[in-house]
Amino acid sequence: MTPKELRAFCLSFNAAVEDFPFNPETSVFKVLGKLFALTNLDARPLTVNLKCDPEDAVRLRADHEGLIVPGWHMNKRHWNTVTVDGGLPDPLLRELIEDSYDLVVAGLPRAERLRLDRP
What we know:
Elements: H1 3-11, E1 16-19, E2 26-31, E3 34-40, E4 47-51, H2 54-63, E5 68-70, E6 79-83, H3 90-106, H4 110-117
Antiparallel strand pairs: 1-2, 2-3, 3-4, 4-6, 5-6
């Protein structure tokens, strides 16, 4: 997955936006103000921080040692740093990004979740 593809995929989700609250290099992808992905699209290797179920996070780190690690500068129980250009298959990357988005949406108040479902 290229940086351009990563950005486009993150923005493909309902109500997803890109923000730069930290600096001009760090893309923060949010849904209704809540972070679901964080990356520097110009960094090499390209990595992205993604929210993850704690049990899945541990399993993924073990299954993809060195490519999926505890979230850098994040709550390491709930966040992973995933190397995007390091050999993980694109379908897995897409699934991890979608799971991160879904976890964040699940944590939103019911009224906001319902707002996302409207066309």
